[in-house]
Design goal:
The complex is a heterotrimer of chains A (about 325), B (about 290) and C (about 240). Helix content of chain A is about 75%, strand content about 0%. Chain A has helices at about 5-20, 25-50, 60-75, 80-100, 105-125, 130-135, 155-180, 180-190, 195-200, 205-230, 240-250, 255-275, 280-295, 300-319; strands at about 140, 230. Chain A starts with a helix and ends with a helix. Chain B has 11 helices and no strands. Classes of the chains: A mainly alpha (about 325), B mainly alpha (about 290), C alpha/beta (about 240). Chains in contact: A-B, B-C.
Chain lengths: ~325, ~290, ~240
């Protein structure tokens, strides 16, 4: 990181730590969800933005993560923090397995296969033979964790900090991976698949593992989301959840790490504001904004900020 | 045996609807090599227009005809305004635009008509025809309407100069321009036709599944499965695939896996076909000499 | 007045400039050929005439400016382009390919008559009228491409390497028909060929193009006698 970046990072982190003490518990809960979405979006962005594999069904992995956490806590009494690695591992394997046949699918067909997964997911979750674990249509209610060590925090504040730490760890990991050789390999496969293969990149393996890692991120986010919302049910994981994630990465910025955060802020707060107009308004706005971004700002908010900064610097140097 | 026959016939009725939507998907795929993820919502939106017209007191078939015209215009406008600018954009951008369209049509419908489920009339009598006990009049009627649409389309593409020009524009745009075909308009017409077919499917399925903004989600999935089974660039295959998927869905749902997992049939078919045989089971292999 | 008049024509594919100010003209009813090595810009010139590449400069057809118009509109003026690679609609039948050639015409009965006339020129196409055009042989597809152009009843026909990849006998047959078309139907031909000897035999006028410019022009006989052309393009 450059010095300037360090300063910006430190300021943002300080603000993030101060936030729960400045706003209500409900707002804190909302910001927890922002962090959750940011992790999920980062996962999707690794796959779609960096590696060029289009997923319209990432809500499925979010759901698997959420259900893993809920089932472990509800049926097996596992502590909430211990469910994250399990949810991550389950999704890593699920993503990898889904990624294997998906290897044979070119961009558009992968989009179709994942779309099918996203649309049919709620029905799969309702399946009555799984009801013993999944709770069927009713879903599962879980209890919110108390802060440990007698910390003087509310449940919402504690969960916020817990999520913040997980998010920082996952972002740090992604940044180190994506800024180096791995990131270059992913983008080479996205932009020049044949050349990448010729350069000795094991395309098939890299793509499958990317699918797995991407699903792992989104799955961990799902687990955190379930703990925060205290509830999982099939109909909250419909195709529109997957579409929300797609909207998040397009608006935040494809192939950008900070973009995940901008996207998460967008998908968390824009519906809140637009909801007052009509129940349908958030989605109408999502759709219009989405088309607007594709036409006008294909690099998303992150790209827009980069461009604005570059222009500002160029101007300053000219003076 | 009776129950089985009943399921097969019901499957043919819904299969006809899948076949229509699959055909619409294939038409757009042939012309632009895009998968129209918004096809279902376009049909749903048109069906709501039909509902409005009928509620306003129009006779059913008048509303039907007006709706088809409306859907056609909607398709043309969407192509010219929304799709044209991303014609040569990367796959992801195009997919995102289709998803945006899906979301916009879905939410605008919800905004105007609310998310409350509505009933939609059938133009066919409530009593089963000829006193049979296997199939309702609406199911028979839907099969009939579907077949009529398919025949009309076949005649149009096979025997009219405009149909020929549309086929030409879809497969070889450069050569088409060189014989004076306005390729851009042919694509827009293709979109219009696809939307019109979709609207017929919407009006035929609405009495069965009821009218609601999310009514086409599952149907679109079956239609994709049908189009893939038949070969995504083969109209005849898509129609056959539609009927096949309809029967499979009903028979498997009733006797094997239960109604709860019907959508899984579509999911398995889609992924299975894509992985095992991406050209579909009836996908044409064109012989070309260079 | 010249039928076709091209002045200072520039063209580029993206950043790569291919034509650097080509000028030439041809009279109605004549056969003109553009000669040149691979990559000289012959195909690009033809494509430029039909607005299939971005151009600068002036193109006049029968006195009217046509540069800047859309391909479809230029075709409607009566310019048929038989493209490089033949442009066959491979999934359509032979007859459907021919009918597409007459797509812009409204005189239905004349179209039917023209179809028969063309089957007269190319009996092979009549035999294969219902066959999928992609399965025709290379020579047959070339005949189909020329025929599709003729179905427009053009004033001017642009022919891009019609001899490419054909057996010598087939080439002779094709060129005999081209001459007949020119003489009987007064269709002007602008012919691009790598086979200079063949082209000069057919043509009245010729232009020699090198790296996007016209370097030599004259009647076919003059060009044939030019020493440089003889050593570089005719090989004797």
């Amino acid at each position: 990181m450059s010095r300037r970046q360090r300063i910006v990072f430190a300021v943002v982190l300080a603000l993030a730590c101060a936030l729960p003490f400045l706003v209500s518990n409900y707002r804190t809960f909302q910001f927890t969800l922002v962090l959750v979405y940011a992790i999920a979006l980062l996962g999707l962005n690794i796959l779609t933005g960096y590696n060029g594999q289009i997923s319209l069904g990432h809500g499925a992995f979010y759901a698997i993560g959420a259900y893993s956490a809920a089932i472990l806590m509800d049926r097996f009494g596992v502590p909430y923090w211990a469910t994250l690695p399990v949810a991550g591992a389950v999704c890593l394997v699920a993503g990898f397995l889904f990624g294997l046949p998906a290897l044979r699918l070119e961009g558009l067909y992968l989009a179709l296969a994942t779309f099918a997964l996203g649309v049919s997911l709620p029905q799969l979750l309702k399946y009555h033979h799984f009801e013993k674990w999944t709770g069927g249509v009713q879903g599962i209610v879980i209890t919110k964790p108390d802060p440990p060590f007698g910390l003087a925090l509310s449940q919402d504040q504690w969960l916020y900090f817990f999520t913040l730490v997980v998010a920082l760890g996952l972002f740090w990991l992604a940044r180190n991976l994506l800024r180096g050789r791995v990131g270059r390999a992913l983008m080479a496969i996205r932009d020049h698949p044949i050349a990448a293969e010729a350069m000795g990149i094991h395309t098939a393996m890299v793509k499958s593992i990317t699918f797995g890692v991407s699903a792992m991120y989104t799955g961990i986010a799902g687990a955190l989301g379930a703990i925060a919302v205290q509830f999982v049910a099939p109909d909250s994981f419909n195709i529109f959840l997957s579409i929300t994630f797609l909207i998040g990465i397009v608006i935040g910025g494809l192939a950008s790490i900070t973009g995940a955060l901008y996207g998460a802020l967008f998908i968390q707060f824009v519906p809140n504001i637009a909801d007052e107009l009509s129940k349908a308004a958030p989605w109408a706005i999502f759709g219009v904004v989405l088309i607007g971004f594709v036409y006008l700002l294909p690099a998303g908010v992150a790209g827009g900020i980069r461009m604005a900064l570059a222009r500002w610097r160029a101007k300053r140097q000219n003076i | 045996m009776e129950a089985f026959l009943h399921q097969v016939l019901a499957g043919l009725a819904t299969g006809g609807i899948y076949a229509s939507v699959a055909l619409a998907l294939v038409m757009i795929y042939q012309a632009t090599h895009h998968l129209n993820f918004a096809q279902g919502e376009m049909a749903m939106f048109s069906t709501y227009i039909a509902w409005s017209l009928i509620s306003a007191g129009l006779p059913y078939w008048a509303a039907f005809a007006l709706t088809v015209v409306f859907a056609f215009i909607l398709g043309v406008v969407i192509e010219r305004v929304v799709i044209r600018p991303v014609e040569n954009a990367p796959v992801l951008a195009v997919v995102v635009v289709f998803i945006a369209l899906l979301v916009i049509l879905n939410s605008v419908t919800g905004w105007i008509y609310t998310y409350t489920i509505k009933t939609f009339p059938s133009p066919f009598p409530a009593q089963p025809l000829f006193g049979n006990k296997y199939v309702s009049s609406h199911e028979l009627g839907a099969i009939g309407v579907t077949l009529a649409v398919l025949l009309l389309l076949y005649g149009f593409f096979r025997y009219t100069p405009l149909g020929l020009a549309m086929r030409a524009a879809a497969q070889n745009p450069d050569s088409s321009r060189l014989v004076g075909i306005r390729v851009g308009w042919m694509l827009a017409l293709g979109w219009g036709l696809a939307a019109a077919i979709g609207s017929v499917a919407g009006m035929m399925v609405a009495p069965i599944v009821y009218l609601d903004p999310n009514m086409m989600g599952g149907i679109l999935l079956y239609a994709f499965a049908a189009a893939l089974v038949g070969g995504i660039d083969n109209p005849g295959g898509a129609v056959f695939g539609g009927f096949l998927v309809g029967v499979l869905e009903n028979v498997l749902g009733a006797f094997v896996i239960g109604n709860e997992l019907k959508l899984a049939v579509a999911l398995v078919l889609i992924i299975g076909v894509l992985v095992v045989r991406p050209s579909g089971f009836f996908g044409k292999v064109y012989v070309t000499r260079v | 007045m010249a039928l076709l008049e091209v002045t200072q024509l520039h063209a580029a594919y993206g950043q790569t400039r291919v034509l650097h100010g080509i000028s030439f003209a041809m009279e109605a009813g004549t056969i003109t050929t553009l000669l040149g090595a691979n990559g000289a810009g012959k195909t690009t010139t033809l494509r430029a005439l039909c607005a299939m590449v971005k151009t600068q400069g002036e193109i006049r057809f029968a006195g009217e400016r046509i540069d800047g118009r859309a391909t479809e509109d230029i075709v409607r003026l009566g310019i048929a382009h038989v493209p490089d690679g033949r442009g066959t609609f491979v999934n359509l039948s032979t007859e459907e390919n021919l009918r597409l050639g007459a797509y812009t015409r409204k005189d239905r009965e004349a179209v039917e008559a023209d179809l028969e006339r063309i089957y007269g020129y190319f009996p092979r196409l009549k035999e294969r009228r219902a066959q999928q055009a992609g399965t025709l042989s290379g020579g047959e597809q070339q005949m189909l491409a020329v025929s599709r152009g003729l179905m427009l009843r053009p004033q001017l026909m642009l022919l891009d390497e019609p001899s490419f990849g054909l057996a010598p006998l087939v080439v002779r047959e094709l060129f005999a028909i081209l001459r007949a078309v020119n003489e009987r139907e007064r269709v002007s031909l602008l012919l691009v060929e790598q086979n200079a000897a063949l082209a000069l035999e057919l043509a009245d006028h010729a232009y020699l193009i090198e790296t996007g410019r016209v370097v030599l022009s004259g009647t076919a006989d003059e060009i044939k006698r030019n020493d440089a052309v003889r050593s570089s393009y005719l090989g004797y």
